[in-house]
Amino acid sequence: MSESKAFISGCKGLSLTDEERRFFDGERPWGFILFGRNIGEENQISDLVAALRDTIGNPNAPVLIDQEGGRVQRIRPPLVQQYPNGAAIGEIYRRDREQGLRAAWLMGRLHAFDLMRFGITVDCLPVLDVPVPGSHDVIGNRAYGHDPETVTAIGRAMSEGLKSGGMLPVMKHMPGHGRTFVDSHHNLPVVEAGLEELQRSDFLPFIAMKDEVMAMSAHMVFTAIDPDNPATTSPKVVSEIIRGHIGFDGLLMSDDVSMNALAGDMAARARGIIGAGLDLVLHCHGIMEEMRAVADVVPVLSGDRLRRARAAEAAFRKPDNADQDALRAEFNAMFALA
């Protein structure tokens, strides 16, 4: 089996086209990601996941999804229950720390029950961003709290729940997306905070969880570090802050390369991401022309990129023997969910 290339790809619809099958077979992405447009009914999701893996001949290829709860939940009722947002977990935590941590662990564990049955193995969670007053709601109620201690505690519990269920988490958005005043899907956020302020708040959850195996970058300019490039394409942010100050040596993927916070065409964006020292380019939208542009410029995984990818692949563990019905009843009682 030939080595994978340094990208993660989406696909366009509910099933693969012949063109997509040929593309994935030839270009061999490391993994795949699903969005709402890929979600139909139960068997369809499982069939799509299996088909994606089959195209690259790897039955264990990572398949990712953003399944947070609240407004960022790709698989929704009736396939799975609707989960509360991160802020709701944080509210329980503020009232009763131990109960809040239990709620966070339970939600991670229940996500794993839901997703593993479709063959999905990676959840882009936890959200470790620490919002500041007045910041844009692109993070908003997705955040667990407004202080690094709360965000760290809940993020760690959520991650442990996922891992107990056999899944892996992806921390986001490194080194911190909480100070954005614009939506990075549409515009480039610029953070004017000084380095000491960032070190006292934004970076702390990522430092505390630096031993997790995967993280996603933030499309944000930190003027105190690199005024010319967003973190995703900044060699200085990656080497000095993410790898250096934070100490993260896990697999680092970009946020979606299609987001308008990044400048240039798709090939230039992908080159910038790889050039900055990230391990993987994430392309989400399933647009074939863009996928080809990314695949044409990213390298085959080798060296540290390959080491980190293999470490992530080796980190999967068998699910525990938890009683799903009992855990779900406990969780739903906390939120008075039906």
TrEMBL record:
The cross-references to InterPro entries, in alphabetical order and at most eight, read: GH, Glyco_hydro_3_N, Glyco_hydro_3_N_sf, NagZ_Beta-hexosaminidase
UniProt-recorded Gene Ontology molecular function terms: beta-N-acetylhexosaminidase activity
Q: Which reaction equations make up its catalytic activity?
A: Hydrolysis of terminal non-reducing N-acetyl-D-hexosamine residues in N-acetyl-beta-D-hexosaminides
Q: Which residues form the Glycoside hydrolase family 3 N-terminal domain?
A: 31-300
Q: What class of enzyme is it?
A: hydrolase
| This protein's UniProt keywords | Glycosidase, Hydrolase
One family name in Pfam for this protein = Glyco_hydro_3
Q: What is its EC number?
A: 3.2.1.52
- Which SUPFAM superfamilies would you find in this protein's record? (Trans)glycosidases
The UniProt entry, under PANTHER family, shows: BETA-HEXOSAMINIDASE, BETA-HEXOSAMINIDASE-RELATED
Its family remark reads: Belongs to the glycosyl hydrolase 3 family.
Annotated NCBIfam families? PRK05337.1 (NF003740)
- What is the official name of this protein in its record? beta-N-acetylhexosaminidase
Q: What is the lineage of its organism?
A: Bacteria, Pseudomonadati, Pseudomonadota, Alphaproteobacteria, Hyphomicrobiales
Designated gene of the protein:
nagZ
